[in-house]
Write a structure and sequence with these properties.
- Two copies of one chain form a homodimer.
- With 362 residues, chain A is α/β, with parallel strands linked by helices.
- Helix content of chain A is 29%, strand content 22%.
- The first copy, chain A, folds into two domains: 14-231, TIM Barrel (Alpha-Beta Barrel); 238-354, D-serine dehydratase-like domain (Lyase, Ornithine Decarboxylase, Chain A, domain 1), CATH 2.40.37.
- Chain A has ten helices and 17 strands.
- In chain A, the strands form two sheets. In chain A, strands 1, 10, 11, 12, 13, 14, 15, 16 and 17 form a nine-stranded mixed beta sheet that branches.
- In chain A, α3 (63-69) runs parallel beside α4 and α6 (142-154) packs across α7 (178-197).
- The mean pLDDT of chain A is 95.
- Chains A and B meet through α4, α5, β10 and α9 of A and α4, α5, β10 and α9 of B.
Amino acid sequence: MLTTPTPAILIDLPMVRRNIARLAEYGLTHKLNIRPHTKTHKSIRMARLQLEAGAIGLTAAKVSEAITMAEAGDDIFIAYPALDAWRTEHLAGLAKSRTVRVGVDSEFAVDAIAAAARSAGVTVGILVDIDVGLHRTGVQSPGDALKLAQHISRSGGVRLDGMMCYPGHIKAPLPEQPAALASVSQILREAMDLFERAGLEAKMVSGGSSPTAYQSHHTPELTEIRPGTYIYNDMSVVSCGYVGIEDCAARFTCTVVSTAVPGKFVIDAGSKSLTQDLRSKDPQSAGFGHVVEYPQAIITRLTEEHGEVDARQCEHRPKLGERVHIIPNHICPCINLHTMAWLNDGEGHSEPMTIDARGQIW
Amino acid sequence: MLTTPTPAILIDLPMVRRNIARLAEYGLTHKLNIRPHTKTHKSIRMARLQLEAGAIGLTAAKVSEAITMAEAGDDIFIAYPALDAWRTEHLAGLAKSRTVRVGVDSEFAVDAIAAAARSAGVTVGILVDIDVGLHRTGVQSPGDALKLAQHISRSGGVRLDGMMCYPGHIKAPLPEQPAALASVSQILREAMDLFERAGLEAKMVSGGSSPTAYQSHHTPELTEIRPGTYIYNDMSVVSCGYVGIEDCAARFTCTVVSTAVPGKFVIDAGSKSLTQDLRSKDPQSAGFGHVVEYPQAIITRLTEEHGEVDARQCEHRPKLGERVHIIPNHICPCINLHTMAWLNDGEGHSEPMTIDARGQIW
């Protein structure tokens, strides 16, 4: 690797397999389907590993991502209110050869998807997106979920498959969040009861997020979960206490390019490779990633191509030209900034891997 | 544009031409060379417009960017301590057919570049990077600048061309920053005097940044400036008082995808298209961009593909499916997230433009 350029993402394949296997086993134990979110890796190869380990299907955020991921799997859930002309047309097109479902929170979206589906001669599955506490998207009550479900069941071109939620507001492990988890459960249960009384079925109840993944059995309403980050992990999940640094399968290799300013060193990774994302916990003090070889160092400022690292608490500073490794705060948007990553097989061999869905924001 | 996907970047070509012409005229008036930083647009076409308007050459942050920009111009300055094996080898290669200069702050970097240049049979120009207050990179005193200049002048394969500085710490217009500007001037002047007494010449003194661009004549030591953002502008330069919203030539078009949560609307642009970058001024309160049609709205939270907008101060909320336009806080890393942009000619015609150097972080 000596003459390969930096910054670059290194992915440890045995660790990836371990992370995938651990969640697959959890799913088997608790009879929960796993539908991994592919926004994290944006890689057809990684999606295939997840499916081979028993994932029931794949999740995508955007329709363009789903189209790429259709190379890996034939059952794709778009966890996004895809309601504009471009997206509805393309997801209906995808539904000609794949099982396609979409999570939506409005009659407008249902009507737009239904019209595109009818026009393409296909049926698209719909999950009612219900807000369980993040307050980003999602209908606001079990009663509103029922109303939307009834609208779906009356529409041609779409099929009511159930509900989805995204508990992105829960960022600490049990037992710190029992009230928040109980509230998720209660909202879903009430909606399911209303559906049942109205003669509708929520066959699928899809939850998600890597932080809450291993707490999912405390929400017995769920039939499946959609974690993404768990395949690689990052400092955000580490700082929340879910995994250790030894579980982080993706790291950056960077070169030290300046040590001119006292107490500091500068790496060749800035906001255009690491992103300005902070950690979920201690966002202000923890800096923009963890320097593996210099754990006392703090990445204090990122400009576009420079990462400034405060080394005053370190025993010594790295030398110019030295390579250091960084575990990013939030791996998902970092991966999206890179065209390729190096996949290490754990036995000293590396090969380039394309980030297939990089930049697919449509 | 009705069935084109969102989010997308729209660029107003007449406004681009005006922004370029205004700086070109300033340069002529004050006998300052303009060497635009191409990290902002990462576009060969935009670089050509800048050169046609009289720019003396181009600036790049990374060597990979410089290689792409060599299609537009034959004189390129890499304002980055490019000292690793991959970069020195590739910049020496580029120097076979182009005038290549690099800004460095260490003997280590000089030696690495000199060795690669000698091995390729070329000469690379070097500017001594001197810290004028940002404390990111740069030698720490005029005396250290002289020492590095002497080292360069004794080395084969490299040629001492002068000095560079980056006054990125100055973020407000005159007369708010007279002391900071005077200090930049004094540091450069002292170094130039030392060079002269030692029989060395600083033919080029390269300053930079869009925020300080139109204050450059207050630093009479400069022979050239390297602004980047000025071609498009963004809410950071607007919030600092340098330009108005009417000077922002690049904006996002987004679709409203959810209005389920009261007081809010959600756009289909999140951190994977807008970035988490805050404004230079009022970073905490101003949000993640300016919504043109709803100026009272605040983009309060970005997750990867969702932008949550607080609309409580707006007279009304946009409808589902409505397109709104956003001026980002920091246009440079946004452009880098997009594969293409739409170039509008001001007469109703749009054409796609590739972001040629997107993702070139090496």
